[in-house]
Design brief:
With 541 residues, the chain is of the alpha+beta class. Helices cover 17% and strands 34% of the residues. The protein has ten helices and 28 strands. The N and C termini lie far apart (65 Å).
């Protein structure tokens, strides 16, 4: 018999795009008008596949070389991508606003990640290779304030729908849209063969639940799950966020089947009882980033013998090919995204599983740059340079033990947690060509680290069978061992082979997509702290 998924959960997070409003000002623009000053406008472009696309423009201001534009430009923000933007300033002397007929005053090209992590991003304007003044850009998340509904409910005396059993009930929460229809916001797990289910505690973002509108109608539907997909309606209930705010433990509401409510003697199709309810203000990823939180990038590289002799073109560590090896590609792809969120550009980088000179003892954690006292490399280029130098000076050996590096980064994160501030969050990129030989210790290390401000990205290099590594990724099941359970999911695992025929940007997007939620879960739910300071809130004066 077909089994229901353990938890269907909400629709994919990717359906919700974060909008960021950009406020722009310039100083010291070139004056290209003879009888007056320039009339500047800023046009914002995005870049994709080498092509340039306009995403918005400010208003035109008359006779000024230091414009403070009032009109904001709105862009879609995706943490997991390197989003290149171009800010082009033109002097427009007519009412057509045609930039093809305008005088070019200067440009600035940067990443959206640099803007949102800077508070105010300031940069010089390039005027055909010469100084063209400067530009200041501030990014503000739209509808930054959000709340989360934490809810635990149980069903009482639900209608029996199955001929040979009871019912297999689950709940769905739908929000009413602008055209009056309803869109799915959240779905619980299915509980088999019961008329009195208690569902797992749920968390629903109020933006998804009702667009943060307290009066938007919310429909709660209870279904009986069927393996053929023809799920039977048990009953439904209508409410609003304003009403939910009045719920308390013990609040009870009746499920009504619309086709039964007119029948004589019909009362309801069961009841839903609130066991726990909390409506909590939660901070967004961008609020933490703009409030001073830094993402600290750490790299761990597998130097075990199974990678093959680095001098052999078939080796996973071979460096002489015109195409970078998979280790290099993964470091570059992930690092290019995270570097926009780390101000000092210093990245600890480690290797494991090699014999080191001069004693040739096996080390399960060593600094790529050869300096045990300071493993930091400057920039992504510094990591790659240290990796290339290291591969020629150590002997690949084994075994594949990842727990020492995980525990080391956990020690860094533990120090950060002691400050009780959302200040430093650590992201470990662990690259390995095979199954870990210290799997039990690694699981224990990850469980302990789940209470700390850190995440672990594991990329499987090469074509090995990485099936056993999937258990480390807690997307479908909470990681546990010996009676201990992870506080939250902090691991994302992916085999590089799944992306070797695509762009490295796709790999980065896949492994980084969960980081914003993991950051928010850590600070909102585990440490219970907000941003260190309030980010920019409005137009520049």
């Amino acid at each position: 018999m077909q089994q229901p998924p353990p938890s269907w959960g909400p629709p994919p997070p990717g359906n919700m795009v974060t909008k960021v409003d950009l406020t722009i000002s310039c100083e010291g623009l070139r004056d290209l008008d003879i009888l007056s000053k320039s009339d500047p406008i800023c046009v914002v472009f995005s870049f994709d596949g080498g092509k340039r696309f306009e995403v918005g423009r400010t208003e035109r201001l008359n006779d000024t070389l230091s414009p403070k534009f009032q009109k904001e430009v709105t862009v879609d923000y995706r943490f997991e991508e390197v989003q290149k933007l171009g800010f082009y300033i033109f002097d427009i002397d007519d009412t057509s606003n045609d930039i093809n007929q305008a005088d070019f005053l200067g440009k600035c090209e940067c990443h959206l990640g640099q803007i949102v992590s800077s508070g105010t991003y300031k940069h010089s304007l390039d005027y055909n290779g010469k100084a063209g003044g400067s530009i200041s850009i501030q990014g503000q998340e739209q509808s930054g304030m959000q709340r989360t509904l934490k809810l635990c409910v149980k069903g009482v005396k639900l209608d029996k729908k199955d001929f040979f059993g009871k019912s297999d009930p689950y709940l769905e929460f739908h929000r009413q849209t602008i055209d009056g229809s309803f869109a799915l916001a959240h779905r619980t797990e299915v509980i088999k063969n019961t008329l009195n289910p208690t569902w797992k505690p749920m968390k629903i973002n109020t933006r998804r639940l009702c667009d943060n509108n307290a009066d938007t109608e919310i429909k709660i539907i209870c279904y009986d799950w069927d393996s053929d997909g023809s799920h039977d309606l048990i009953g439904e209930y209508y409410t609003t966020l304003a009403s939910i705010e009045q719920w308390r433990q013990g609040t009870t509401f009746q499920l009504v089947h619309p086709k039964k409510k007119e029948k004589r003697g019909y009362r309801n199709s069961g009841e839903i009882v609130v066991e726990q309810v909390e409506l909590k203000r939660e901070f967004t990823f961008l609020e933490y980033i703009q409030g001073g939180c830094l993402l600290n990038f750490v790299v761990g590289i597998d130097f075990t013998g199974s990678n093959g002799d680095p001098r052999d073109p078939s080796s996973l560590h071979y460096l002489m090919s015109s195409t970078p090896n998979q280790y290099t590609q993964a470091i570059t792809a992930v690092g290019n995204v995270i570097q926009d969120y780390d101000a000092d550009q210093l990245y600890p980088a480690f290797g494991f599983g090699a014999r080191l000179p001069p004693t040739w003892q096996v080390s399960h954690q060593f600094s790529l740059n050869g300096n045990p006292a300071d493993p930091n490399c400057h920039g992504i280029g510094g990591i790659l340079a240290a990796y290339h130098q290291c591969i020629n000076s150590v002997q690949l050996y084994g075994p594949t033990n990842a727990s020492p590096i995980i525990n080391n980064v956990a020690a860094m994160a533990r120090e950060a947690a002691r400050t009780q501030q959302a200040k430093d969050y650590y992201i470990l990129l662990l690259l390995t060509d095979g199954i870990l030989t210290d799997m039990a210790q690694t699981i224990q290390g990850i469980i302990s680290a789940s209470e700390l401000p850190m995440s672990v990205i594991i990329v499987g290099i090469g074509d090995a069978d990485f099936t056993d590594m999937e258990r480390l990724d807690g997307d479908d099941k909470v990681l546990s061992m010996g009676g201990r359970k992870a506080k939250r999911d902090i691991v994302q695992f992916v085999p590089f082979a799944d992306f070797k025929n695509g762009s490295s940007a796709r790999l980065a997007a896949h492994v980084l997509k969960e980081i914003p939620q993991q950051v928010c879960d850590m600070y909102n739910d585990v440490m219970h702290v907000g941003p260190m300071f309030q980010p920019f809130q409005g137009p520049m004066s």
